[in-house]
Structure formats: structure tokens, C-alpha cells
Amino acid sequence: MSVALLDLKRQFEQVEADVRIQIDRVLREQSFILGPIVQEFEAAVAAYAGVKHAVGLASGTDALLLALRALDLQPGDEVITTPFTFFATAGTIHNAGGRAVFADIDPVTMNLDPAAVERAVTPRTRAIVPVHLFGLMAQMAPLRETARRHGVFLLEDSAQSIGARQVVDGAWKATGQLGDATTFSFFPSKNLGGYGDGGMLVTDDDACAARIRRLRTHGGVKMYHHDEVGFNSRLDTLQAAILLAKLPYLDRWSAARRANAAWYDARFARLEDAGILRRPLIPQGNESVYNQYTLRVRDRDPLREHLQAQGIGCAVYYPVPLHLQPCFAYLGYSAGDFPESERAAAEVISIPVYPELAAEERERVARAIEAFYGVEG
């Protein structure tokens, strides 16, 4: 029996009727670009995230790009982020005209280390971009304090973590409520995924939301009148309709992911005690949505080959930290500059955790890992 890393066909079986209803709405209304359904979905996400504004965009990458573009970065302006993330986080800093400055990760959570961020701030720093990696929020309280003290923009990259929560100042706060702006991705593999690309920026800042709406439509809100040079980055109405149908399912899917993760946590406790692997640790006062269940293991690459040979889906997110990517050589970083990120890149492996994963499939995944390390289940 093979086990997929992600099986979207099972999800479609749950939502097919609702999705088809919404797609039929689009076809009947024949409003394909920024029509009422996009506005309805934006309002629904704003309400879900607990913010004033949600602006639909063509992708999660574009959400980051336009947010950074709205800062009007000048040559030499710096944006601090993590080297242990998907390429888009740093790629958009470059494409928005800024210079990426990397800070190392916390070795436990693998999210941006607030102390490392504080050390990286200079008079040229314009923004900090924490990534809520694998469904777990970064430590936002100290990052907010650093951003406030230095007067810089705090942009949450929540591509993997819509719905994640964290206790800040004694109250639960969700992604979207702690930064100056937050970006989401609706790539199909995300917890809330469309059937193509899609993204969104959410914020409580009226001026920021207005600027992003202008930038997404070639720099103008009135047709054929352009206040600035912008982009063509509109959330497709068909994608908005699909996502609108799926949004009511999101919390139950996240709960199912947490249940699968809890099962793995219990099963792999012995392997962690033996020093063979490390389970993902969720610090107190956090609720992860587990876009990925990511282990840190000995002999990662042989384990990956073993799992693949057994028909078990797995993936490495991410094998090469961004400061070692050839395209960022101009930044001047070298191997050893961010040891925790480099160590994580050599050890991480993600295994199936999607909501519809069956109990017997979880068992098969666990047994395969135990067998590789010569441990009986």
C-alpha cells in the first residue's frame, strides 16, 4: 500500500458539491475579473483572520512582492528574513528593489530567531519578514517589539499557516493580527488551496490596503488612469469561488492535521528518546496548523530513499538554505554563516499529515521509519 504525501482527490470528494455550486455561479454571472465573488471571498477571509482588509492577488509570491513594493524600497534598503524558507520570501525582496539580510533560525522551532533579528538590524533596515514555517507561527511578541523600536515594517509571511494562533499579551492572536500586513498563499498544497495559483494580503492599515489594491491593477483603481506603475496581479474569480467553497472546512481540516500530528508525536517519542530523531515542537501558547509534519532525523537522505522505495510520500523542505543559493551569492554570505539553518536543511524530512490520512496509512508510515532505524513498533 502506497501512502501519498498529499491526496487532494480525497479532499475533493468532500467539497465537490460546494465547489461546483460556486463555479456555476461564476459561469452564470460571467464576471471573471475582480467581480462580486472575489469581494465576497475577501470579506470572508478578513472576517476569518479578524482584520479590516483582505486583498486578493494572483499568488502568494505576488502578495509578498506587492507588500514590499508598497514600501518604496531604495537601493541599499535592507529587509531581514530567514534563510530557511521557500525561495519566494527572499526573491521578492530582491525583485522589490531591496537587499535581503538573513538572520538564523531558532534550532527548536526552525522559525526566525528574534535575537538574531535584533542583531541584524542596521540604520538601513526597512522591514522584517518572519515566516510562519510549516504551520507554526514565529515568536511574534519580540519581533513586534524589535520592529516597533526601530520603526520598521513587520510583514508576516503566512503562506503555510493560515489559521495558526499564538498567545500574545495574554490573548490568542491569529496570523494576520500581529504584523503591519500578512500574506497568504492559496497554492493547491496549502491548507486552504485553490486549483491553481492565488494569494492574499490582509491588514488593518487602510492606506496599505488601498495601495495594494492600486498596485494589483496596473497602479490605478480607475480604468485607464494610472497613479503609478503597478502590476497585473488579481485573484482569479474562479479561484476565489473555489476557495470560498472550501473556507468553511478549513478549521476542521486543521484540527484533523493536529490529530494526525499528535498521533505521530506519541508514536515517535521512543525514537526521540533514543536520539534518532526530533519531533516538531510546538511551544506552549501556540496552535500549529501543520501544513507539514517535519521531523529532524539522522541519515536523512538514506531515510528518504527508503521511504520512497516503500511507496511512502515524503519531501525535504528545504535542502539548500537561501544564503547558499547561487543567485544570492552577491549578498556575500558563505557556508557556516547560519549554522542552524544549514543544520536543519541537512536533517529535515516531511511526512504525510493531511486531514484525510487514514489510521492504517499513518501506521505504515511509522513502521517504515522504525524499520529503517531497526526499531520495532
Write structural notes for this entry.
The protein has 377 residues and is an alpha/beta fold. It folds into two domains: 8-248, Aspartate Aminotransferase, domain 2 (3-Layer(aba) Sandwich); 249-372, Aspartate Aminotransferase, domain 1, CATH 3.90.1150. Helix content is 40%, strand content 14%. It has a seven-stranded mixed sheet. Helix 2 (36-49) packs across helix 8 (237-246). The longest helix has 22 residues, at 8-29.
Key terms for this structure?
seven-stranded mixed sheet, alpha/beta, 13 helices, three-stranded antiparallel sheet, globular, 2 domains, Aspartate Aminotransferase, domain 2, Aspartate Aminotransferase, domain 1
Summarize the structure.
With 377 residues, this protein is of the alpha/beta class.
Tally of alpha and pi helices: 13
Number of domains: 2
How are the strands of the largest sheet arranged? 1-9-8-5-4-2-3
User: Which architecture name of the largest domain does CATH use?
Assistant: 3-Layer(aba) Sandwich
Please identify the top-level CATH class of the largest domain.
Alpha Beta
* Main sheet: strands, sense, barrel: 7 strands, mixed
- Determine the fraction of residues in helical runs and give it as a percent range: 25-40%
In the predicted model, the low-confidence regions spanning at least 5 consecutive residues are: none
Q: Whole-number average pLDDT?
A: 97
The Rg value, from CA coordinates, equals 21 Å
- The ordered string of helix (H) and strand (E) elements is HHEHEHEHEHEEEEEHHHHEEEHHEH
DSSP summary, beta strand count: 13
